[in-house]
Amino acid sequence: MIGVLFAGVAIGQKGFLSSILSLGKPSPTPTLALTPTPDPTANWRTYSNSEGKFSVKYPTEWTIKDLRSLGSIIQNVSNVVLEADEYKAQITISVSDTDTARKLAEGEQKQSGEKFSLDGTMATKWLESKEKKAQGYVLAIKGDRVYSILLECLSQECFETDKQYYLDIFDQILSTFKFLE
Question: Is pLDDT larger for residue 70 or for residue 145?
Fold first, then answer.
């Protein structure tokens, strides 16, 4: 019995001594392998507009309509509509180079809104949900041009169940927007 007790103490001391002796030795440092986040826009199509001097990527299942001018009060250099599947949502990109458009844009940008960089240019973004429509609106002034980018939910389904999905797509599209020189 005493022999078993001494053996237990000896084994315990050996484990204790080896743990003390290992304190001075560096322990192996775990390496962290970073996995790159996949680019959700990697397989999207790219639309370039030489008149509007911009390019943008958009989901492959969306369609694009280049409308040039919608006949608004302000004559636009370019009007492009990106339409989501089954007309649930659309994004309209309008470019104007008139003094009237610039003055209106400068006035709107003074209002509250989220300031952010759109391809290195200061822009303002507003998000709202009213009258059963989710909307995102971006306004940027680059040189003599005013860029207006509008997201509209066109269906009840978009507003009620898919609103966040389309707001996320809007942000992803904005992240691909490039001004062309």
Answer: 145
State the pLDDT at residue 7.
47
Tokens of 65: 């309509």
Confidence band for 3, pLDDT divided at 50, 70 and 90: very low
The dihedral built from the CA positions of residue 22, 24, 28 and 34, taken in this order, carries a sign that is positive
CATH number at residue 169: 3.40.1000.10
For residue 133, the model assigns a pLDDT of 62
Range of the domain at 136: 45-179
Q: Which two tokens stand for residue 86?
A: 């089954």
Res 17 pLDDT > 50? no
**174 lies in a domain?**
yes
Is 91 within the bounds of a domain?
A: yes
- Domain assignment of residue 40, yes or no: no
Compute φ and ψ for 131, nearest 5 degrees: 45, 45
Tokens 């004559």, residue located: 75
Secondary structure, 3-state, 55-122: EEEECCCCEEEECCCCCCCCCCCEEEEEECHHHCEEEEEEEECCHHHHHHHHHHHCCCCEEEEECCEE
Q: Could you tell me if residue 102 is inside a domain?
A: yes
Domain count, the chain: 1
